[in-house]
Here is the input.
Amino acid sequence: MCDSLDDRHKPGTRTVPLNEAIGTVLAHDITEIRPGEFKGRAFKKGHVVREEDVCHLQRLGKENLFVLHIAEDEMHENDAAYAIAHALMGSGVAIKGEPNEGKINIIAERDGLLKIDREMLLAFNMLGDVMCATLHHNMLVKKGQTVAGTRAIPLVVKKNIIDEAVRIAETLHHPLAKGGIGGGVIEVKEVRKPRAGVVITGNEIYRGTIKDAFAPIIARKIEEVGGEIVGVYYAPDEKEFIVDRLCELLNAGADLLITTGGMSVDPDDVTRFAIRDLGVSDITYGSAVLPGAMFLVGYLEQRTGARGHGRAGLDPGSRTLDPIPILGIPACGMYAKITIFDLVLPRILAGEKIGRQDLAELGHGGLCMKCEVCRYPVCPFGKSG
Here is the structure.
């Protein structure tokens, strides 16, 4: 049977008798009208005609169908969507439901930190006949939350395009892949629940001249990530006093140390020097974020078998454990709702080691707009790249 004139303008399409249509793919929606009951879509474009559909289509007056022809080197949009979704997915994410007109949503399989390999995502999207849209890199997400959507754009797509899309996405599965995040372009990393110890510095707070506002703010932010506060100390601007309080918190089981205040260049601000004297040699001071330019992050090496934490926190005969992060929050953390602390804390709890480059990269998008009503994280702050 010859195709219609309309068919000639639509490559890959043809008209077939209804009794020959089983297994073919509809090229357009088919509408059903039941007077006084229903008017709408009975079959959608892309539907694969089944044997049980024939009677229904006959009731709609169909004798012929306008269908797609899928060649050996082509794929239906739903099959393509499954292929690319699985290739894009790393740990901590899952497919939600079935494809809908070639689109699949990817959801978080656990609470955690969303990681997107943006370089690979760009290469994937540059192919043209496939796409993937995601939430922002380094966002905290909840289990079941949609973090990405992907699809093949044409109803029928060339297999070589899908093969290339899969190849790009799966490049990360190689352990030596550049910028690899553990496999997959999209991943949700588990965030540990910290036991935080806090030292709030400043002569005026220690002596009661002004009321402390830091402790409740930090406690709330630690509780929001499922952690707990093991202790809060107040300290004057004296290095030895600050170091002793930090050691006490370590001995109480703190696996995250937080100091506040004393981070500027004022001669009375000695907190960062106390951190150095604790034995923290891996220190990065200063970030490209406002508020939070005078932020400090460091890591204290620790070993098993130590009877307590001295200045270096090490016992020469013991085994090395993961270093303990220590964060120095400048005064902005007391009056600004969202600061550098909020951007860095989840990444540290996800096991990332934050250094100079990480803090420098935050400069793009690192200027808080100081909105009258804060809507973070639904805002540009911290969304570098």
Summary: The two ends are 55 Å apart (CA to CA). The chain has eleven helices and 20 strands. The CA atoms of residues 113 and 189 lie 5 Å apart.
